[in-house]
Structures are given as structure tokens and as C-alpha cells.
Specification:
heterodimer, A: five-stranded antiparallel beta sheet, about 0% helix, B: seven-stranded mixed beta sheet, four-stranded antiparallel beta sheet
Chain lengths: ~110, ~120
């Protein structure tokens, strides 16, 4: 079946450094991708999204890169701050799945002071 | 604040109890969702309501019973649960269901459920 997964379950990063969180997907028909951040005790919060007609999209301190050739998605966080410590989820949708989001298991990011 | 409010935040119940989880969205969305989040696992979609009609039921045991009285409110009624049902239950909403350009979900903070 189709699956969405992250390469590493945990990531430790020094405050001020850049973070890169990776995600692989298997459905070549996926056409929309989204990143969520979940802090302890809270629900997932939208960070950034991208459609398959784009390779890159930038937000405030975050950039999402999409490589459709190898079915790979990444989230880059610039100048990582303590408030960035959270679990990060990627998700994707496809027309064949009624555009429902399929989530990966998440990467726990810990920022070291 | 995402505009999706869930109550209670925490719930402890015995296996013979009956309880309900409540979700309310103030975003004017037409679709609402229940997800189960267990440790180290991807979010599991349980139910989807679109315009107050259930459009998805992902093989969820009958001890979970959803109710959507209107497009702003969603309930999950619980009875005779098992310890393995302990998890974070998340409610979400979207502008509509099953349409491109409206895939983004807005989540509540969840109800942390413990079944003893």
C-alpha cells in the first residue's frame, strides 16, 4: 500500500544551526504535501505546504523542498530556536484518496542550548 | 489558537464507563474529522463528516460512536472501551472534504484518554 514516512525518528540540533527534516513518500500520484508541527500538549499546527507543480516554497524561517523524481520531501528550519522543539509530521494527498491527508510517524526535534 | 476547540483535555475512564468527547470549530468549515494518535504511530483517521453526513468510517470498532449535529460540532461517544484505546484523540476541520485546494486540516489540541 501507499505510505508516507520520515527518514529519522529523532533529530538533535544546536540552537542557531539549520535543521533539515526529511520525508519519503511512495505514491507517485500525490500532488499536495504539508508539514505540521506538534508541540507537547497541543494538536498539530500547520507550518507550510507545497503542490506538486512546485519544487520549493519558503515561509518565515522555513523552506519546503519537493523532489518528485525520488519522491522526497524536506523541511528546512533556519536558525533553529528552542521553540522549534517539537514533533514534525509530513503528510500528502492524492486524487485517488479523496484528497485525504496520509501522515508519516513524525520526527522529534530537540534543540540544544 | 486554531479555531478548533476540544473538551475535555484529559479523560480517565473505566472500561464500563460511557463518556463523550466534544469538538467545536469556529472556522465556518464544512468537514470535520476524528483522528487517533498513539505513541510512535502515524495519525489514524477514524471518521469524517461532510456537511453533517458521515462520509468515512475506517473500520472503527462500534464502541466508538460519532455524532455530528451540525457543521460546527462533532462528538465522539465512548462506551466499553479497552485499555488499548488509550490515546490522544484529535478533532480537525477543513473547508470541505474530497476537493483539491481544501486539503489543509486545522486541528484541536486533543483529548488525552486513559482507559483503566
Amino acid at each position: 500500500g501507499e505510505s508516507v514516512g520520515l527518514h529519522l525518528p529523532t533529530l538533535s540540533v544546536q540552537e542557531g544551526d539549520n535543521s533539515i527534516i526529511n520525508c519519503a513518500y511512495s505514491n507517485s500520484a500525490s500532488d499536495y504535501f504539508i508539514w505540521y508541527k506538534q508541540e507537547s500538549g497541543k494538536g498539530p499546527q500547520f507550518i507550510i505546504d507545497i503542490r506538486s507543480n512546485m519544487d520549493k516554497r519558503q515561509g518565515q524561517r522555513v523552506t519546503v523542498l519537493l523532489n518528485k523524481t525520488v519522491k522526497h520531501l524536506s523541511l528546512q528550519i533556519a536558525a533553529t530556536q528552542p521553540g522549534d522543539s517539537a514533533v514534525y509530521f509530513c503528510a500528502e494527498t492524492a486524487p485517488s484518496n479523496d484528497y485525504k491527508l496520509s501522515f508519516g510517524a513524525g520526527t522529534t526535534v530537540t534543540v540544544r542550548a | 489558537e486554531t479555531g478548533v476547540t476540544q473538551t475535555p483535555r484529559h479523560l480517565v475512564m473505566g472500561m464500563t464507563n460511557k463518556k463523550s468527547l466534544k469538538c467545536e470549530q469556529h472556522l465556518g468549515h464544512n468537514a470535520m474529522y476524528w483522528y487517533k494518535q498513539s505513541a510512535k504511530k502515524p495519525l489514524e483517521l477514524m471518521f469524517v463528516y461532510s456537511l453533517e453526513e458521515r462520509v468515512e468510517n475506517n473500520s472503527v470498532p462500534s464502541r466508538f460512536s460519532p455524532e455530528c449535529p451540525n457543521s460546527s460540532h462533532l462528538f465522539l461517544h465512548l462506551h466499553t472501551l479497552q485499555p488499548e484505546d488509550s490515546a490522544l484523540y484529535l478533532c480537525a476541520s477543513s473547508l470541505s472534504f474530497g476537493t483539491q485546494s481544501n486539503e489543509k486540516l486545522f486541528f484541536g489540541s486533543g483529548t488525552q484518554l486513559s482507559v483503566l
